[in-house]
Amino acid sequence: MDEKNAISAFQALAQPTRLAAFRLLVQAGPDGMAAGEIAAALDARQNTMSANLSVLHAAGLVRNAREGRSIRYFADYDTTRDLLSFLMEDCCGGRPEICQPLMERVACCPPETE
């Protein structure tokens, strides 16, 4: 991930509803959630949630798939891993044991499935 993409991701996450939606999708795992379910869970208006999900999608943090008349959203774990790797690049001054607990905690992300 380059700096431009990282900044885009951070800008997308720098809003409370978008951050909450992203975290909700991470928790939902590979099954994702329909846009209406996300809006209901966050007590947000559907048109507002749609706009926020579009921002997350443009930043590459979520994927979507049409299911009939609704759209299901999924956290993009590859982009999330890339963003975390960007943050941790060259960390710890050559002492990987400092970062190891953090890396083990992040390793829980499920692999992408399509």
TrEMBL record:
Classification via InterPro entries: ArsR-like_HTH, HTH_ArsR_DNA-bd_dom, Metal_resp_trans_reg, WH-like_DNA-bd_sf, WH_DNA-bd_sf
Gene3D superfamilies hit by this protein: Winged helix-like DNA-binding domain superfamily/Winged helix DNA-binding domain (1.10.10.10)
Pfam families in alphabetical order: HTH_20
GO molecular function, one term: DNA binding
Domain of life of the native organism: Bacteria
Keyword RNA-binding: no
Chain ranges of the HTH arsR-type domain: 1-95
Keyword set, alphabetical order: DNA-binding, Transcription, Transcription regulation
SUPFAM superfamilies: Winged helix' DNA-binding domain (SSF46785)
Keyword Cell inner membrane belongs to the record: no
NCBIfam families listed in its UniProt record: HTH_metalloreg
Full protein name: DNA-binding transcriptional regulator, ArsR family
Species of provenance: Limimaricola pyoseonensis
